[in-house]
Amino acid sequence: MKQNPIIKKLGLNRIILTGVLILMYVLFTAAIPNFSSMARIRSIMNYVYFLGFLSLGVTFVIATGGIDFSIGPVMFCCALVAGYCLNSYGVPMPLALLISILVGGLFGTFNGYLVSHWSVPPFIVSMASMNIAKGIGNIFTRSQTVSWPLSTDANGWFRNLIVYKGFPVGLFIFGVVAIICGMILYNTKAGRYILCLGSNREAVRLSGVNTKKYEMLAYVICGVLVGIAAIFFVGAYTTVQPGYGDQYNNEAIAGCVMGGTSMVGGLASIGGTVIGVFIISLLQSGILAFGMAKDVQLITTGIIVIIAVYADVMARRRKN
Amino acid sequence: MGEVILTMKDIDKSFPGVHALDHVSFEVCKGEVHALMGENGAGKSTLMKVLTGIYTKDSGTIIYEGKEVTFHNTREAQDAGVVIVHQELNMIGDLTVAQNIFIGREFMKGFRIDDKKMIAESRKLFDELHIDIDPQAKMNDLTVGKQQMCEIAKAISHQAKVIIFDEPSAALTEKEIEDLFAIIRDLRERQLGIVYISHRMDEIKVITDRVTVMRDGTYVGTLITKECTKEDIINMMVGRVIYEEPKTKSLVPPDAPVVLKVEHLNAGRMVQDVSFELHRGEILGFSGLMGAGRTETARALFGADPKQSGDIYVNGKKIEINSPEDAVKAGIGYLSEDRKRYGIVVQKSITQNSTLACLDRYVNGPFLNKKAEREITQKYIDELSTKTPGPDQLVVNLSGGNQQKVVIAKWLIQNCDILIFDEPTRGIDVGAKNEIYKLMARLAAEGKSIIMISSEMTEILRMSDRILVMCEGRKTGEIPIEEATQELIMDKATRNIQ
Hints:
A: mainly alpha, B: alpha/beta, 2 domains, six-stranded mixed β-sheet, 17 helices
């Protein structure tokens, strides 16, 4: 049984996913009037950006065999802290953006250190830091909603990162970051170690590799990407409320595992994650356009995670 | 010897890359002790695992008590009365003896576990078998021999009709073996069918009624023990394999420098005050029974497990080894006894496994130099004649012997001068085994220094230039190959067991 080389190169899973994505788009366009309007597409893209960065980040963590349930709330924490600094302390915009990334990176470092050096299970660590992130966001802003500048405001230029005169800068940045993530994961020493330790940590450690360092690095990368996601979130939706963000955990993880990244670690697909993110974003937009409640979307993402993980489990069982 | 209780006919089983059982047949009668013999990797354990439902057979039939049966798991086999006493012990260390024996079928008193009854039942069982073990003792506190006795008691408590002993004596002392034989004779009296897997020829002659020999996954023949000689059995076992004579003299020049010196190494209960030296070009055999602390010594030395104290010198220079990273930097490589868990990353390619220890050398700026990686991997595939379509093949698709070669390649590419081979031929077929032996001899001749941990006496005697013997965490002897005999090694390996 010889596989078609083109299919092998692109990956059967990704081809199917792309098909699903196109099919969904066609169905939605047919069923919902004005679905392919410019405004709708822009709204889908807004969702793709922040979710995409979250999903790319969590791909690194899942590749090590870990998990991060704190990404959504941490993203909110980043946006709250940076936005509060901007509004209340008059921090210049570039610095505020940097603060967002820094806060994300710090959370990643914290999670990664506990997981790799203290061997605390990632599930527990990320649950804890999810609450820590919410708490910090609350205390820092004194439980006030934080609004980022509108495009007409003095500091509104940061929104050009998303759209500049109709040109989708955000899509371009997302693409570049995804390519860099792919480069890191597949073409650098760190990426190789991250994937291998996700597959068999002990064998990698006994090969003389400092596994703790590379496992932690995966969480740091994730944190930095969460910080970037925060910028794109406020760039699209302006306001952030303390105490929220959980729902994006599942959506980001769903995008990632749907794309072929294995929950047990060792296998990760950046391309798959990107397609997965588009599917989730399209889906949420479609569900809202159908006039269904947000809860339907929560249920759907939940089901998608279960199906994607089950498919992965079955694929592994067949291989053995 | 009574009627036939169990017949296995034309059993066939393949694993990816290995034809583990090739139409093997086997039978046991009531009141019989039937030996199953063969080299490591001949398929004895696989056959028994097929019988007890751990593996599913590809084809063939199993007839038990006159009916065709297929057990889907050990539980079903146990319930039917076919029980296996494993080579590796399956006990939970933190539970008591009684809790272990009745695990999965605890006596209940309402919603509570009836510990008292389990203790009483265990005591009854031990009395019956004339074993002196306290049912309330923690499993961890027993010697390996006593733990084995518990396994046997557990097997018997299942109303067993057929009991399989998979190398039960490997870790036992003389006295414990005598006790074991007394139990086995008693079971034979009671008309149980007993399968006895062992490598020890002397035991086979003493305890068994018939001998079935397997080789490379095939059935060779069955002999009646009384009517055959040791040589008959060996000839059947060995078959086409060219059995090389033990090494008669050390191949290490007398003036070879010491490359590794370990002084007073202590790591837990299993490594107590171990000191030794390793010379350039030497193969130092580590012999001893199961649980003697050889692997633990190697792991402590390599930094895989923490050590309490001990000094390590490489090429005369004292070095600190606190992690495998330190050890690899010092030029030490370790091939684990458990290849799948500690040696290879099965879901990754040969290339990714081969360069895992020295990826630093295969980078171009920030990026990996995949072309160079593939080239060096191909070079070692050729050099070690690893059987694979190419360097991109996933390791999971290779046979045990070829997986081992990938691990060896990893350390050779890293250019380690000191190699620790922990059971290098475990689970590897005979042909690949000989290749690994040749390879080790060649590496030593090229000036690499090798520590070879092995539980196979023939392997120790064939490969080593010097033999270090351990027992219960201590070094109990150091024997130059010129003076080494099986008896001498065994004597030292059982030295301080009471």
